Amino acid sequence: MHIPVLKKEALQYLDPKPNESFIDCTISEGGHTTAILEKNKPNGKVLGIELDKDIFDKLSLSQTERLILVNDSYVNLKEIVKKSKFTSINGILFDLGMSSWHLEESGRGFTFLKDEPLDMRYSLENDLTAEEIVNNYSQKEIEKILEEYGEERFAKRIAKRIIQTRHRKIKSTFQLIEIIKKAVPRKRTKIHPATRTFQALRIAVNDELNNLEKALFQAAEILEKDGRIVIISFHSLEDRIVKNFFKDSNLKILTKKPVIPSQEEIKINRRSRSAKLRAATKVRT
Hints:
The protein is 43% helix and 15% strand. The chain contains 13 helices and seven strands.
């Protein structure tokens, strides 16, 4: 079951009032959106965007006059808003975390705990897969992906081992994990040795960081004066983009330091432990 991260804190900073309109750019299974719809009754609206067609099709929320659902990427935010004729936007939410469904049910290789195909696409319309990268990219290209998107200190060794091993096609997560384990020194660490490589490949496959930057500029542009923007990120690369964007844009920062989950929330939902929430408000148009 997907548990929305930092729900109470997201609502606090979005501050939904009766009849206001909001965009949930990453609606997933609808946890944050449901909470917003409770607060902006009787006539407030939410535009919910979900990239993954499989998640979109299984959404248990029904499209109504108050909830507009769109299967698309938030990188097309302005275009989605225009097509949906969604105006007077008082708040925008981005929850950049993976859905539990992706890890537990998708079968697309997002987790190193299961032996699955090396896919890692959020949208199956995307042509690029993790399998394509590990089997066809050059050693330098793979090393760069692991360094930039995974901050992996053993990027060179892992990339070299991938190249040496791929005379037999690398198709599954467990194949890749064995390669990584042979490439990095054995030592006790809190994280799985494949964590950073999997993160890097996922980011590269879905062009996550570039898409986030593009979407943030659009979000700030379409927001009404005094509108609120809340972003929940899950690793330092995303958080850095959000922090720098807030600092350089026409927004008043509401969170001097990122808001993190309480120990109580982490106990209930371990996946929330790396979450950081930043919020800002638009001071002028």
